[in-house]
Specification:
Elements: H1 4-21, H2 46-60, H3 68-77, H4 79-93, H5 98-109, H6 115-132, H7 138-147, H8 150-164, H9 168-179, H10 187-203, H11 205-214, H12 221-229, H13 236-245, H14 251-268
Helix pairs in contact: 1-2, 2-4, 3-4, 4-6, 6-8, 7-8, 8-9, 8-10, 10-11, 10-12, 12-14, 13-14
Length: about 270
Amino acid sequence: MISLDWKERMLHDCDDFFERKLPKGDYDFDIIYNAYPGRHDNKIPRDVVVFVAQTLASKMMKNHKDYLPFCEYIWNRKGLNGKIVFSCVISKFLKKDYLYYFEYTKKYLFTLTDLGEINLLIDKIFYPIFKKNPTIHIDTLLTWIREANEKISQQTIKLILKIGKNDSVFLKKFMTKLEGKWLGANPDFVKVNGFFLKNLAKINYESYLQFYKNYKNSREPIFVEILTAGLTGYEDFIYEIYENWSKSGNARLKKAALTGFKYLNRKKN
Protein backbone atom coordinates (compact mmCIF):
# COMPACT_ATOMS: atom_id res chain seq x y z
CA MET A 1 0.00 0.00 0.00
CA ILE A 2 1.25 3.48 -0.87
CA SER A 3 1.12 5.92 2.02
CA LEU A 4 -0.94 9.09 1.69
CA ASP A 5 2.19 11.24 1.96
CA TRP A 6 3.81 9.45 -0.96
CA LYS A 7 0.64 9.61 -3.04
CA GLU A 8 0.48 13.35 -2.54
CA ARG A 9 4.16 13.72 -3.41
CA MET A 10 3.83 11.64 -6.56
CA LEU A 11 0.68 13.49 -7.62
CA HIS A 12 2.60 16.75 -7.34
CA ASP A 13 5.53 15.33 -9.29
CA CYS A 14 3.21 13.93 -11.96
CA ASP A 15 1.80 17.45 -12.41
CA ASP A 16 5.32 18.83 -12.74
CA PHE A 17 6.37 16.12 -15.22
CA PHE A 18 3.23 16.60 -17.31
CA GLU A 19 3.40 20.39 -17.40
CA ARG A 20 7.14 21.05 -17.68
CA LYS A 21 9.03 17.99 -18.90
CA LEU A 22 6.68 16.10 -21.18
CA PRO A 23 6.12 19.06 -23.58
CA LYS A 24 9.91 19.31 -24.02
CA GLY A 25 10.24 15.63 -24.98
CA ASP A 26 11.74 14.65 -21.62
CA TYR A 27 10.11 11.21 -21.22
CA ASP A 28 12.03 9.93 -18.19
CA PHE A 29 8.95 9.51 -16.01
CA ASP A 30 10.82 7.47 -13.41
CA ILE A 31 12.01 10.69 -11.81
CA ILE A 32 8.54 10.79 -10.27
CA TYR A 33 9.24 7.82 -7.99
CA ASN A 34 13.03 7.41 -7.98
CA ALA A 35 13.24 8.40 -4.31
CA TYR A 36 10.52 5.97 -3.22
CA PRO A 37 11.95 4.06 -0.23
CA GLY A 38 9.83 0.89 -0.18
CA ARG A 39 11.82 -1.13 -2.69
CA HIS A 40 11.83 -4.92 -3.13
CA ASP A 41 15.09 -6.38 -4.45
CA ASN A 42 16.03 -2.79 -5.30
CA LYS A 43 12.98 -2.47 -7.54
CA ILE A 44 10.09 -0.03 -7.31
CA PRO A 45 6.86 -1.90 -6.39
CA ARG A 46 4.48 -2.38 -9.29
CA ASP A 47 1.61 -0.62 -7.50
CA VAL A 48 3.73 2.55 -7.41
CA VAL A 49 4.43 2.31 -11.14
CA VAL A 50 0.74 1.69 -11.88
CA PHE A 51 -0.29 4.65 -9.69
CA VAL A 52 2.02 6.95 -11.65
CA ALA A 53 0.83 5.46 -14.97
CA GLN A 54 -2.84 5.94 -14.15
CA THR A 55 -2.24 9.49 -12.98
CA LEU A 56 -0.38 10.42 -16.15
CA ALA A 57 -2.94 8.64 -18.36
CA SER A 58 -5.79 10.66 -16.88
CA LYS A 59 -3.92 13.86 -17.77
CA MET A 60 -3.22 12.70 -21.33
CA MET A 61 -6.75 11.65 -22.21
CA LYS A 62 -7.88 14.97 -23.67
CA ASN A 63 -5.18 15.05 -26.36
CA HIS A 64 -4.26 11.36 -26.29
CA LYS A 65 -2.70 11.04 -29.75
CA ASP A 66 -0.24 13.80 -28.94
CA TYR A 67 1.36 11.45 -26.42
CA LEU A 68 2.04 8.49 -28.69
CA PRO A 69 5.74 9.46 -29.03
CA PHE A 70 5.92 9.21 -25.23
CA CYS A 71 4.28 5.78 -25.33
CA GLU A 72 6.64 4.52 -28.01
CA TYR A 73 9.67 5.85 -26.16
CA ILE A 74 8.83 4.25 -22.82
CA TRP A 75 7.98 0.89 -24.41
CA ASN A 76 11.30 0.76 -26.24
CA ARG A 77 13.59 2.55 -23.80
CA LYS A 78 12.35 2.29 -20.21
CA GLY A 79 12.44 -1.42 -19.46
CA LEU A 80 9.71 -3.31 -17.64
CA ASN A 81 8.36 -0.25 -15.84
CA GLY A 82 8.05 1.55 -19.17
CA LYS A 83 6.07 -1.34 -20.58
CA ILE A 84 3.79 -1.35 -17.54
CA VAL A 85 3.15 2.37 -17.95
CA PHE A 86 2.57 1.88 -21.69
CA SER A 87 -0.04 -0.81 -20.99
CA CYS A 88 -1.85 1.32 -18.41
CA VAL A 89 -1.87 4.41 -20.64
CA ILE A 90 -3.03 2.60 -23.79
CA SER A 91 -5.76 0.77 -21.86
CA LYS A 92 -7.10 4.22 -20.94
CA PHE A 93 -6.74 5.56 -24.48
CA LEU A 94 -8.88 2.67 -25.77
CA LYS A 95 -11.86 4.38 -24.18
CA LYS A 96 -11.31 7.38 -26.43
CA ASP A 97 -10.72 5.63 -29.76
CA TYR A 98 -11.24 1.89 -29.50
CA LEU A 99 -10.58 0.87 -33.10
CA TYR A 100 -7.43 2.96 -33.45
CA TYR A 101 -5.80 1.79 -30.24
CA PHE A 102 -6.84 -1.82 -30.71
CA GLU A 103 -4.96 -1.93 -34.03
CA TYR A 104 -2.13 0.19 -32.65
CA THR A 105 -1.49 -2.23 -29.80
CA LYS A 106 -2.01 -5.31 -31.97
CA LYS A 107 0.85 -4.15 -34.19
CA TYR A 108 3.08 -4.09 -31.12
CA LEU A 109 1.88 -7.49 -30.00
CA PHE A 110 2.49 -9.21 -33.32
CA THR A 111 6.14 -8.15 -33.36
CA LEU A 112 6.90 -9.62 -29.94
CA THR A 113 8.76 -12.82 -29.12
CA ASP A 114 9.40 -12.20 -25.41
CA LEU A 115 6.83 -14.15 -23.39
CA GLY A 116 6.70 -11.60 -20.56
CA GLU A 117 5.96 -8.75 -22.97
CA ILE A 118 3.32 -10.81 -24.78
CA ASN A 119 1.59 -11.67 -21.52
CA LEU A 120 1.68 -8.06 -20.35
CA LEU A 121 -0.17 -6.77 -23.42
CA ILE A 122 -2.62 -9.66 -23.54
CA ASP A 123 -3.45 -9.52 -19.82
CA LYS A 124 -3.59 -5.75 -19.38
CA ILE A 125 -5.04 -4.61 -22.69
CA PHE A 126 -6.65 -7.41 -24.69
CA TYR A 127 -8.10 -9.65 -21.99
CA PRO A 128 -10.45 -6.91 -20.67
CA ILE A 129 -11.59 -6.20 -24.24
CA PHE A 130 -12.32 -9.81 -25.16
CA LYS A 131 -13.81 -10.68 -21.78
CA LYS A 132 -16.48 -7.98 -22.03
CA ASN A 133 -18.25 -9.59 -25.01
CA PRO A 134 -16.17 -12.57 -26.13
CA THR A 135 -18.56 -14.10 -28.67
CA ILE A 136 -18.27 -11.16 -31.07
CA HIS A 137 -14.47 -11.56 -31.05
CA ILE A 138 -14.34 -15.27 -31.96
CA ASP A 139 -13.20 -14.68 -35.55
CA THR A 140 -10.51 -12.27 -34.36
CA LEU A 141 -9.23 -14.79 -31.83
CA LEU A 142 -9.17 -17.53 -34.46
CA THR A 143 -7.15 -15.28 -36.75
CA TRP A 144 -4.70 -14.60 -33.95
CA ILE A 145 -4.03 -18.23 -33.18
CA ARG A 146 -3.64 -19.06 -36.89
CA GLU A 147 -1.51 -16.13 -38.01
CA ALA A 148 0.59 -15.07 -35.03
CA ASN A 149 3.84 -16.67 -33.89
CA GLU A 150 3.72 -19.72 -31.64
CA LYS A 151 4.07 -17.84 -28.35
CA ILE A 152 1.29 -15.40 -29.18
CA SER A 153 -0.92 -18.25 -30.42
CA GLN A 154 -0.42 -20.18 -27.20
CA GLN A 155 -1.05 -17.19 -24.96
CA THR A 156 -4.17 -16.35 -26.97
CA ILE A 157 -5.42 -19.89 -26.37
CA LYS A 158 -4.81 -19.46 -22.66
CA LEU A 159 -6.80 -16.22 -22.79
CA ILE A 160 -9.65 -18.00 -24.62
CA LEU A 161 -9.76 -20.77 -22.04
CA LYS A 162 -9.52 -18.27 -19.18
CA ILE A 163 -12.68 -16.65 -20.51
CA GLY A 164 -14.28 -19.98 -21.45
CA LYS A 165 -13.81 -21.39 -17.96
CA ASN A 166 -16.61 -19.09 -16.78
CA ASP A 167 -18.51 -18.73 -20.07
CA SER A 168 -19.58 -22.09 -21.44
CA VAL A 169 -21.62 -20.56 -24.28
CA PHE A 170 -18.59 -18.73 -25.62
CA LEU A 171 -16.37 -21.80 -25.21
CA LYS A 172 -18.79 -24.03 -27.11
CA LYS A 173 -19.11 -21.53 -29.97
CA PHE A 174 -15.36 -21.10 -30.14
CA MET A 175 -14.74 -24.85 -30.25
CA THR A 176 -17.28 -25.24 -33.07
CA LYS A 177 -15.54 -22.53 -35.08
CA LEU A 178 -12.13 -24.01 -34.34
CA GLU A 179 -13.21 -27.46 -35.54
CA GLY A 180 -14.41 -25.85 -38.76
CA LYS A 181 -10.80 -24.88 -39.52
CA TRP A 182 -9.34 -28.34 -38.93
CA LEU A 183 -9.66 -29.78 -42.41
CA GLY A 184 -7.14 -27.46 -44.02
CA ALA A 185 -4.76 -27.27 -41.06
CA ASN A 186 -1.04 -26.86 -41.79
CA PRO A 187 1.58 -28.34 -39.41
CA ASP A 188 1.73 -25.17 -37.29
CA PHE A 189 -2.05 -25.13 -36.88
CA VAL A 190 -2.03 -28.83 -35.97
CA LYS A 191 0.39 -27.97 -33.17
CA VAL A 192 -1.75 -25.03 -32.02
CA ASN A 193 -4.87 -27.21 -31.91
CA GLY A 194 -2.98 -29.84 -29.92
CA PHE A 195 -2.00 -27.14 -27.44
CA PHE A 196 -5.65 -26.08 -27.23
CA LEU A 197 -6.87 -29.61 -26.52
CA LYS A 198 -4.27 -30.23 -23.82
CA ASN A 199 -5.17 -27.00 -22.05
CA LEU A 200 -8.91 -27.58 -22.54
CA ALA A 201 -8.49 -30.84 -20.62
CA LYS A 202 -7.32 -28.84 -17.60
CA ILE A 203 -10.50 -26.77 -17.35
CA ASN A 204 -13.20 -28.93 -18.96
CA TYR A 205 -12.21 -32.57 -19.24
CA GLU A 206 -15.58 -33.70 -20.56
CA SER A 207 -15.39 -31.25 -23.47
CA TYR A 208 -11.87 -32.50 -24.17
CA LEU A 209 -13.05 -36.14 -24.27
CA GLN A 210 -15.95 -35.21 -26.52
CA PHE A 211 -13.57 -34.35 -29.34
CA TYR A 212 -12.29 -37.95 -29.36
CA LYS A 213 -15.82 -39.35 -29.18
CA ASN A 214 -16.89 -37.16 -32.11
CA TYR A 215 -14.07 -38.36 -34.36
CA LYS A 216 -13.81 -42.01 -33.37
CA ASN A 217 -15.10 -43.16 -36.75
CA SER A 218 -13.20 -40.61 -38.80
CA ARG A 219 -10.68 -41.69 -41.42
CA GLU A 220 -9.41 -38.19 -42.20
CA PRO A 221 -5.66 -38.08 -41.47
CA ILE A 222 -5.57 -34.41 -40.46
CA PHE A 223 -8.17 -35.02 -37.73
CA VAL A 224 -6.11 -37.88 -36.33
CA GLU A 225 -2.98 -35.72 -36.41
CA ILE A 226 -4.70 -32.97 -34.43
CA LEU A 227 -6.18 -35.39 -31.89
CA THR A 228 -2.78 -37.04 -31.50
CA ALA A 229 -1.14 -33.65 -30.87
CA GLY A 230 -3.75 -33.06 -28.16
CA LEU A 231 -3.40 -36.34 -26.26
CA THR A 232 -2.97 -35.96 -22.52
CA GLY A 233 -3.42 -38.87 -20.15
CA TYR A 234 -5.05 -42.23 -20.75
CA GLU A 235 -8.63 -43.34 -21.33
CA ASP A 236 -9.72 -46.86 -22.32
CA PHE A 237 -12.06 -45.71 -25.09
CA ILE A 238 -9.36 -43.47 -26.62
CA TYR A 239 -6.95 -46.40 -26.52
CA GLU A 240 -9.48 -48.50 -28.45
CA ILE A 241 -9.92 -45.76 -31.06
CA TYR A 242 -6.18 -45.55 -31.62
CA GLU A 243 -5.82 -49.27 -31.73
CA ASN A 244 -8.37 -49.30 -34.55
CA TRP A 245 -6.76 -46.36 -36.38
CA SER A 246 -3.31 -47.96 -36.15
CA LYS A 247 -4.54 -50.76 -38.46
CA SER A 248 -5.56 -48.33 -41.20
CA GLY A 249 -4.36 -48.79 -44.76
CA ASN A 250 -3.94 -45.03 -45.14
CA ALA A 251 -0.24 -44.38 -44.53
CA ARG A 252 -0.62 -40.83 -43.20
CA LEU A 253 -3.47 -41.75 -40.88
CA LYS A 254 -1.61 -44.84 -39.65
CA LYS A 255 1.55 -42.83 -38.92
CA ALA A 256 -0.35 -40.36 -36.72
CA ALA A 257 -2.29 -43.20 -35.08
CA LEU A 258 0.85 -45.16 -34.22
CA THR A 259 2.38 -42.07 -32.63
CA GLY A 260 -0.71 -41.71 -30.45
CA PHE A 261 -0.91 -45.44 -29.77
CA LYS A 262 2.68 -45.49 -28.50
CA TYR A 263 1.92 -42.54 -26.22
CA LEU A 264 -1.19 -44.23 -24.83
CA ASN A 265 0.70 -47.47 -24.23
CA ARG A 266 3.27 -45.58 -22.18
CA LYS A 267 0.51 -43.96 -20.15
CA LYS A 268 -1.33 -47.26 -19.76
CA ASN A 269 1.72 -49.02 -18.38
